Amino acid sequence: MPETAQVQPDPRRWKALGFIAIAQLMVVLDATIVNIALPSAQVDLHISDGDRQWVITAYALAFGGLLLFGGRIADLWGRRRAFIAGLIGFALASAIGGAAGNEAMLLGARALQGVFGALLAPAALSLLAVMFTEAHERAKAFGIYGAIAGGGSAVGLILGGFLTEYLDWRWTFYVNIPFAVLAVIGAFLVIREPAGTHNGSGLDIPGVVLATLGLVSLVYAFTRAESDGWTSNVTIGLFVAAAVLLVAFVLVESKVRAPLLPLRVVTDRNRGGVYLSLGLAIIAMFGLFLFLTYYLQVVKGYSPVRTGFAFLPMVAGMVTGSTQIGARLMTRVPPRLLMVPGFLLAAVGMLILTQMKVDSSYAGLVLPAQILLGLGMGTAFMPAMSLATFGVQPRDAGVASAMVNTSQQVGGAIGTALLNTIAAGAVTDWVTSHAAQARTLGKAAFANEAAVHGYATAIWWAVGILVLAAAIVLVLVDSGHQGRRPGASSGRDGHEDAPSVPVLAH
């Protein structure tokens, strides 16, 4: 098809980006803001220590399990419609959570947030994919989106600290409502989805059931591994069930006419490499957020608000790496020349944190580590998120976007369970080998020394995971720079989407 015959981009696309960014920020904030409020909510609603994890797990299971379904619904319904429905549902669920009078009501609201988040998140990313097709504009748009996706969690710590400390934990839910209302108004006024990008195929019900049950089993398995241990019967059973269900899902998808997840989306080596490397990077990042939060609050005695502000250098680094490095170079150099150095730079930041001690200074250790981490992750995430949907057929944009979120969600579940387990084991070993120091250090100081040793040990593993992510990118991602319109070199029939990604000549 001649280039001149292509549809002109929507003149309101930059305004639309602003409202899409607001919705994405709301979803990302929610991942950490509730963590800050959890201790207060637990006391207020009389939630036991054994049940408090369900405030996080209920959301994670619904969100992670339904992402592929949500992405395909966006392709079928239209991304704008799915985006609006997700926003309204998320706002209603947040209102229920804020008004919760008991544990069951709060857990139900969290699960409902996960359901609508699974519809909203892939709809938002796929809207970007189909609205911004010119290379330089796409770079800027994904730079903004990547900065929000990377830095929003840390901003959630600040906002959650303020709301919990100065207002009430319920406002960590209510705060979503104005975000959602503003984004819905913007969606009605300025977001217009390009014509001809819907997927008119029917819904793959067996695929929906298998994918949802398989992903729920997988996410829950890592949650139970953290609490029950990796060798417990329940944990092993969940992992086996997840493996069986997901293998069956792949077999079904290879046979049905209108699959939930067309295998062409994930078998493309570039997208497959992005999904794997992003998942690994999130494993490392989730562990880091957890340990650094505990280090600053428990060991160093920071308040929730001060802890949130302590993360700002990482946010600034992510924004700079995403918008000033990734976005400027994405159309000039191949993605792997941004992703590999980005992951390795982040690994250097992690490496600095392995040297943390109880008396380490923020300015001398944590600050430089955060800056390097932020710059590295921002530089790597931005081209990765763009490449995940670059060249994909428009009818598959929703499910390709859902795979980005799925890799991150599963990575987060793995990161929390795996690195927590490693840290706990390191603490136990340290306490056993240093028992003689308990009397000389005192109970509190001894506990802090043990905890910091556990954090540092787990962060060493995070360093290795980031290096592995860089290696996967080096081996699998061979795309050329994203300096052309996605799909420009594809035929009209759209049977093959891989040729639309220019290949780097070796």
TrEMBL record:
- The answer on whether this UniProt entry bears the keyword Membrane reads yes
Which keywords does the record carry? Cell membrane, Membrane, Transmembrane, Transmembrane helix, Transport
| Chain segments annotated as transmembrane | 16-38, 53-70, 82-100, 112-132, 144-163, 169-191, 203-222, 234-252, 273-296, 308-325, 337-356, 362-390, 410-431, 458-477
Where in the cell is the protein located? Answer: Cell membrane
Highest taxon of source:
Bacteria
Region of interest called Disordered, as start-end residue ranges on this chain: 483-506
Q: What is its main location?
A: membrane
| Keyword Calcium belongs to the record | no
Topology versus the membrane? Multi-pass membrane protein
The UniProt record lists the Major facilitator superfamily (MFS) profile domain at 16-482
Cited InterPro entries: EmrB-like, MFS, MFS_dom, MFS_trans_sf, Sugar_transporter_CS
Q: Which PANTHER family does the UniProt record give?
A: BLR6921 PROTEIN, MAJOR FACILITATOR SUPERFAMILY MULTIDRUG TRANSPORTER MFSC
Instruction: Provide the protein name.
Output: MFS transporter
- Species of the source: Sphaerisporangium rhizosphaerae
